[in-house]
Amino acid sequence: MSEKENVSEELVEETPLEETSVEEVEETVSEIDELKKQLEETEDKFLRARAEIANITNRNRNERELLQKYRSQDLGKKLLPAIDNLERALSAEVTDESDSLKKGIEMVLESLIHSLKEEGIEEIPAAGETFDPNLHQAVQTVPASDEHATDTIVEVLQKGYKLHDRILRPSMVVVAQ
């Protein structure tokens, strides 16, 4: 006899045929059912954790995009009074001697406005526009006339600015009523 046949005969002789009872089968089936239930619960937990991680990732990406989009907001708000002062300086009467100073102020103002536009900060159009309480702040009203229709902005007292879709400062205006 070959060695293979000897080994298989020994296994057959050593392994007695057992009779399994109905109770043992039922126990095994209940164990299998319990394990299946645990597997389903574990899969559910895994899927929920994966979805939560995806949500956190999306939320973080959206927050980063918003921070990037509105990063200039604080700087813009701080620069607006300086722009107002430069515009007031330009509106003052000048003599021939101070003409070069006025040119310098114009250059600085143009540079500031250009830099703000590059960052997405724009002036809110106001003069002659229809009053919009989301963009404009009515400081004063005047009676409507043939020249100025109702709810039309007659005069701009202080320019307003916005960064993309956010208002940094509303325009302070006089409105015809």
UniProtKB/TrEMBL annotation:
Region (Disordered): 1-29
Main localisation: cytoplasm
Taxonomic superkingdom: Bacteria
The keyword Glycosyltransferase is assigned to this record: no
Keyword terms: Chaperone, Cytoplasm, Stress response
UniProt xrefs under Pfam families: GrpE
InterPro entries referenced in this protein's UniProt entry, alphabetically: GrpE, GrpE_CC, GrpE_head
Family: Belongs to the GrpE family.
Subunit: Homodimer.
Purpose: Participates actively in the response to hyperosmotic and heat shock by preventing the aggregation of stress-denatured proteins, in association with DnaK and GrpE. It is the nucleotide exchange factor for DnaK and may function as a thermosensor. Unfolded proteins bind initially to DnaJ; upon interaction with the DnaJ-bound protein, DnaK hydrolyzes its bound ATP, resulting in the formation of a stable complex. GrpE releases ADP from DnaK; ATP binding to DnaK triggers the release of the substrate protein, thus completing the reaction cycle.
Name of the protein in its database record: Protein GrpE
Species of the source: Candidatus Enterococcus willemsii
